[in-house]
Design goal:
five-stranded parallel β-sheet, alpha/beta, 15 helices
Length: 378
């Protein structure tokens, strides 16, 4: 890193270490990494193997190769270390010349109930960032297993949290763990600004436009967006509203609501801008407004709009439409199928995780109470 880019007159870049499972990478993971990157200049992310994750918390939804690729696709990540140890050691930090380790304010434990960051905490080489309230892998798994539509309420019920089925899935305030139990995700303009580059296209940029649901942002989406970005210089992603997605996907799709999908897509390093609630049909007005040079679509089937017309009729007419093959057959439906086929395993995983966290909370509360009693005695 050039010295001119360093802040406060420093000549040596601050290297930050993060690690984790990064299973079903979502905007909560991305926000944690964004905050970690802001604490330094260069961000290295260690990702655990399938074997380590299965041993300590249960089977991951995505395999390690998929998880490595997803983390590399996050815009704030400079380097990925494959097969990072589950317990973060000083040796690991020193090996990669990292100044400190950074993690969210939730607690991560081994199968034996040991804090995975106890070594770096004791050495004073640990920093903490705020966990993103309202989302967790546990919660997303729960949405798929329950096949509920609670996550895209509309109108006056839009931000309500349904009080049912939370005993094991962590779907609302009745859930037992404050970390895996999902509260409410409340979108703000500040959060969108933090995720956005905020850079308009240059006059000479070739602008590429894609549109879709991009639900449960996964490796298939990532590979498609990489191929789409190769068609130009500035990639705009149009995200359809929840009712529109539900019309062409059915069931309880989208699993993630529009606000959540916006941040998930903005965190991708190939994406320049997002249109929130994009129209299903790509019109002449839309293309002129964003100066779109090319509209790109993947190999998935295209459903006609409610009027029975092809949503890509105009860009096809003006010869500004191409189809690209991402080379990846992963779909949101396949992810859900993985969860459903392994339902018992994932339910057990979620239950064990919340039970372990609850036990730790009780221990910490008891420890704090004992400390207060000692202070009073003195």
């Amino acid at each position: 890193m050039p010295e001119s880019k360093l802040q406060n007159g420093r000549t040596k870049p601050i290297r930050v270490w993060c690690d984790g499972c990064y299973d079903m990478v979502h905007f909560g993971h991305a926000n944690s990494l964004r905050q970690a990157k802001a604490l330094g200049d260069y961000l290295i992310v260690g990702v655990h193997t399938d074997e380590e994750i299965t041993k300590h918390k249960g089977p991951p939804v995505f395999n390690q190769e998929e998880r490595y690729k997803m983390v590399r696709g996050i815009k704030w990540v400079d380097e990925v270390v494959e097969g990072a140890p589950y317990v973060t050691t000083l040796e690991t930090l020193d090996k990669y010349d990292c100044d400190f380790c950074c993690h969210g304010d939730d607690i991560t434990m081994t199968a034996d109930g040991v804090d995975t960051y106890h070594l770096v905490k004791t050495a004073g080489r640990y920093r903490e960032v705020q966990r993103t309230a309202g989302v967790s892998t546990t919660d997303l798994v729960g949405r798929m297993l329950l096949l509920t539509r609670n996550h895209f309420r509309q109108g006056e019920r839009e931000y309500e949290v349904e009080k049912e089925h939370s005993s094991t899935m962590g779907q609302d305030s009745l859930a037992r763990s404050p970390w895996t139990g999902c509260s409410q995700f409340l979108p703000t303009t500040q959060k969108i600004i933090q995720f956005s580059d905020g850079k308009p296209p240059k006059p000479t940029d070739k602008v590429v436009y894609v549109a879709g649901a991009f639900d449960l942002f996964h490796v298939g989406h990532l590979d498609f967006l990489e191929k789409a970005k190769q068609q130009g210089d500035y990639l705009i992603v149009g995200l359809h509203t929840d009712p529109v997605v539900n019309r062409y996907k059915g069931s309880n799709y989208p699993i993630m609501n529009l606000h959540e999908r916006v941040l998930s897509v903005l965190a991708c390093k190939y994406v320049s801008e997002v249109v929130i609630g994009a129209p299903y049909t790509v019109t002449k007005d839309l293309m002129e407004h964003f100066n779109v040079d090319m509209v790109v679509h993947g190999c998935t089937p295209i459903m006609n709009d409610v009027d029975g017309k092809d949503p890509f009729a105009y860009p096809k007419q003006v010869k500004k439409f191409i189809t690209v093959d991402s080379g990846n057959d992963m779909t949101t439906e396949k992810i859900v199928d993985r969860i459903i086929r392994n339902r018992l395993e994932f339910e057990t995983r979620n239950f064990k995780k919340e039970k372990k966290e609850l036990e730790l909370i009780k221990f910490l509360e008891k420890d704090k109470l004992n400390g207060d009693l000692i202070d009073v005695g003195n």
